[in-house]
Design goal:
The complex is a heterodimer.
Chain A: H1 3-20, H2 57-63, H3 66-78, H4 81-85, E1 100-101, H5 107-116, H6 131-144, E2 175-176
Helix pairs in contact in A: 3-6, 5-6
Chain B: H1 15-21, H2 35-67, H3 83-121, E1 127-134, E2 137-142, E3 151-154, E4 156-160, E5 165-171, E6 176-179, E7 187-189, E8 195-199, E9 205-211, E10 223-229, H4 231-242, H5 251-262, H6 265-268, E11 292-293, E12 298-299, H7 302-310, H8 312-315, H9 328-339
Parallel strand pairs in B: 1-5, 4-10
Antiparallel strand pairs in B: 1-2, 2-3, 5-8, 6-7, 6-9, 9-10, 11-12
Helix pairs in contact in B: 2-3, 5-9, 7-9
The chains are: A mainly alpha, B alpha+beta.
The complex binds copper (II) ion.
Copper (II) ion binds near residues 213, 214, 215 and 222 of chain B.
Chain lengths: ~190, ~350
């Protein structure tokens, strides 16, 4: 093989390698057809009997996908979650970037909180947020305390940032806490 | 001499005429409809003429080099030095460099003159329009000292003919650029910075503007309509826009309105005169008076409106309106209501 053709072959291989990096993840713009995705079983807290079950596929799809998480970040502003929770630091609503969860910090818990509302002032968004957007927001809320992969958490802000971006937050494993309100009674793990 | 048969056949002879026809139209800088665009158009022609001249000279030179008699030198032989040729080549090269510099200076002078005449047209305003670029549509506001008389609409700029207008340009997310070729050159919309553009349209008509700075997935579907009316028609349009949305006239429309107000639509869209007051998506108060849907992606009509609401992600994949999933039985009522928002 002449050195020219060898060079050509290595160049072509390099090109193929570069192309392989193009598709980091799948972006799905449309979500599942209506009515097929619903917040799963509602779990309060992270205590389970026996070995922890593997995360349901739903979760991996949304929490492992930078596009979904960044869409969630935009919607968190658009739907005015920031009005009560500030940018996650807490105001009228509790902080979402700390490790304490009153109603559970799993993706399904957060989705359920958004859909159902919570008695001490968290409004219900039932029928107001399409399913895919609901999961995106829930995945973003989890990224606030870095419960998602570093390369998935958003790295920039559209507004003036007071704290380092989600990507640079320390990882804080969630723990149940706060004072669970009456709606959660009898629904324990 | 016979020309070889054109690959596109006889009809192809019309092609050059078609190309010329593309010069006029709703989105063409060759068909100016305002003082600013006319001046920029002159500059365009000067640049075109200058470059065409240089191009022709280079081609002629190349042709001459191809056509002239070649002297043949044996392999390994040396071309005897030729003082005459050397001198001519040197002179030619010097003339070429001097000519290039002169042409560039002429361009600079012309560009300066055009810029200067554009600044003379600036800072005169009778109407102020605020345009905010968003991924991937435009908010258009007509601010007024009396807040109850300011107007918010989307993807459509209305202008009175012959009146100087100040267009304030903002961006909400990333850099966009507003380009209405018939009226003016491009101007960027930059987050955190206010730019402006002065326009005077000197004939009535409908023109098209387009985002001219790549801003993400749906950049190509980020257009807007510019409608230039007579002063009286403009004032009438403004009055009509100031009115809140008409109340539903019958049962069916009332059902459509209720569907709108109880579903996800109200999280993003506002309709003045109803409780829907969100402002992160196009204002729908007078949706049915607009010419297009989703920033020029579709012409406005009832069928397209239904298609858009049923699946916006098919029409403009990746845009920020999600598939809400309105059941088919509700879709028609919803569309009928929105279509009544004249
Ligand atoms: Cu653009």
């Amino acid at each position: 093989m002449s050195s020219l053709s060898r060079n050509a072959v290595s160049l072509a291989l390099l090109g193929v390698l570069l192309l392989a990096a193009c598709e980091r993840e799948e972006r799905s713009y449309r979500g599942e057809p209506v009515g097929e995705v619903k917040p799963g079983a509602i779990v309060q807290g992270t205590l389970y009997a026996g070995a922890p079950s593997p995360p349901p596929p739903q979760r991996r799809e949304y929490e492992g996908n930078a596009y979904h998480v960044s869409e969630g970040k935009r919607l968190f502003e658009w739907f005015n979650c920031s009005g009560c929770h500030a940018h996650g630091g807490g105001d009228i609503g509790p902080p979402l970037m700390d490790e304490v969860w009153i109603y559970g910090g799993e993706l399904e818990n957060i989705a359920a909180t958004i859909v159902e509302g919570r008695p001490n002032g968290m409004p219900s968004f039932r029928n107001k947020i399409p399913d895919q957007q609901l999961w995106q927001i829930a995945a973003y809320v989890r990224s606030m305390q870095r419960e998602v992969r570093k390369d998935v958490a958003p790295g920039r802000d559209d507004h003036m940032a007071v704290t380092p971006g989600e990507q640079n937050q320390p990882v804080t494993p969630p723990k149940p806490g706060g004072v669970a309100s009456p709606s959660s009674e009898g629904r324990g793990p | 001499m016979r020309w070889p048969p054109a690959p596109w056949g006889r009809k192809g002879r019309v092609l050059p005429i078609l190309v010329l026809a593309a010069c006029s139209g709703p989105q063409s800088m060759l068909d100016p409809a305002g003082g600013q665009a006319a001046r920029i158009g002159v500059m365009g022609w000067i640049l075109l003429a200058g470059c065409a001249f240089v191009y022709a000279v280079v081609l002629l030179w190349l042709l001459w080099a191809l056509a002239r008699r070649h002297r043949w030198v044996e392999p390994g032989g040396v071309l005897p030095p030729q003082a005459g040729v050397e001198r001519r080549l040197t002179n030619g090269l010097v003339a070429w460099v001097v000519g290039t510099v002169l042409i560039l200076f002429a361009f600079v002078a012309a560009s300066y003159a055009v810029d200067k005449s554009l600044t003379h047209l600036a800072n005169r305003e009778e109407v102020v329009v605020e345009v905010e670029g968003k991924q991937w549509w435009w908010t258009v506001r007509y601010p007024d000292d009396d807040p109850s008389r300011s107007i918010t609409t989307a993807n459509e700029i209305h202008l009175p003919v012959g009146v100087p207008v100040r267009v304030k340009l903002k961006a909400a997310d990333v850099i966009h650029s507003l380009w209405i070729p018939n009226l003016h050159g491009k101007m960027d919309l930059i987050p955190g910075r206010d730019n402006e553009l002065f326009l005077t349209a000197d004939r009535e008509g409908i023109f098209r503007g387009q985002c001219a700075e790549f801003c993400g997935l749906q950049h190509a579907h980020m257009a807007l309509d510019v409608i230039v009316h007579s002063r009286a028609a403009f004032d009438a349009w403004k009055e009509a826009q100031l009115a809140p949305a008409p109340a539903p006239a019958d049962e069916a429309l009332a059902r459509g309105q209720a569907l709108f107000l109880t579903s996800a639509c109200t999280m993003c869209h506002g309709i003045r005169g109803t409780p829907a007051s969100a402002s992160v998506a196009p204002d729908l108060t007078h949706l049915a008076s607009r010419r297009s849907i989703a920033a020029g992606a579709l012409p406005y009509n009832r069928g397209n409106l239904a298609g858009w609401i049923a699946d916006p992600q098919r029409i403009k994949p990746g845009n920020h309106m999600p598939l809400v999933g309105v059941p088919p039985s509700d879709l028609q009522a919803l569309v009928a209501y929105l279509d009544s928002l004249k």
